[in-house]
Design a protein that fits this description.
Number of helices: 12
InterPro entries: Epimerase_deHydtase, Lipid_A_modif_metabolic_enz, NAD(P)-bd_dom_sf
Protein name: UDP-glucose 4-epimerase
Largest sheet: 7 strands, parallel
Distance between the termini: 58 Å
Bound molecules: nicotinamide-adenine-dinucleotide
CATH class of one domain: Alpha Beta
Helix content: 40-55%
Number of strands: 13
Organism: Pseudonocardia oroxyli
Amino acid sequence: MTASEKAAQPVSGQKILVTGGAGTIGSTLVDQLVDAGAAEVVVLDNLVRGRRENIAAAQERAGDRLTLVEGDINDLGVVRELTAGKDLVFHLAALRITQCAEQPRTALESLVDGTFSVIEQAAEAGVKKVVASSSASVYGLAEEFPTTERHHPYNNDTFYGAAKAFNEGMLRSFHAMKGLDYVALRYFNVYGPRMDAYGVYTEVLIRWMERIQRGERPLIFGDGLQTMDFVHVHDIARANVLAAQAPVTDDVYNIATAQEISLAGLADALLKAMDSDLTPEFGPARQVNGVTRRLADISAAARDLGWKPTIGMDEGLRGLVAWWKQETGVTA
Ligand SMILES: NC(=O)c1ccc[n+]([C@@H]2O[C@H](COP(=O)([O-])OP(=O)(O)OC[C@H]3O[C@@H](n4cnc5c(N)ncnc54)[C@H](O)[C@@H]3O)[C@@H](O)[C@H]2O)c1
């Protein structure tokens, strides 16, 4: 059997650990793992941002096949206990980019030390494959578009992006040192149900939905010309499953739609999804982050993982609005 054939892991019938599995992407992945027939899914989440409600529906379907352990990836004993006997580890636990900027030491402990423990213990336990969440933040403002995985990481100036790049480096080194199979996925701009609708760090889409619902125009700081490459959370979760199943190891993949949308275009698309005839309002520019353009090349994920995005922006935004209304009790 070749190294890449050995790295093809089914999810059906497998024992699986999902760190950060009560979060936006992790809980969506848990839904898919349960439905794909995983024998056991253990979620390790300290619930700093994740919510029990996010996995409530999966829990009903899975019964005792799904367990939530409220704990920290920095707790070596817990990580050791939960990686033991697992076939697969999906590592998603992390802090948001904004919190990393405000609390770099906490970010170091969580994203770097915590991830080290997960990788070290996965290798120790003989886990067959780790699928880890990386980020387009590793590129910073890219120099080439569409951006391929071969693009260098030296334009990143965020602690979060630095930690994610180091996470990828740790995975590579454990593959080289211990033969640990892994795939890292660089998500671009994520959106979809279970986005944080309440926290301090709520995303721009949530703030705009609140304004539009109140009859106020969505507010754009600056000219709105910066672009993003949005990918729906269901498609991201599916990429995780395919990354486990594909005969690939020791590699990273962009996960995006390869569709560039400006902030102003996004506001227009959201207004349409909310059947509103308001128009965006422009405010003074605020330097939130220096990344003014994102556009991914996703051909490697299509070729090696058999993954392609399936949910377009219009459909995805309508689903997001429906979820948000239900979540926040908006009736109109
Ligand atoms: N949302 C995005 O735009 C985006 C983009 C690129 C990459 N990512 C990455 O995808 C992964 C999942 O992101 P998400 O959007 O679902 O975020 P999220 O905040 O919804 O989920 C992260 C989960 O990890 C948990 N967590 C945080 N620190 C922990 C710790 N020390 N121990 C245990 N659990 C902990 C949180 O409670 C939360 O449930 C993360 O690694 C993130 O960096 C997200």
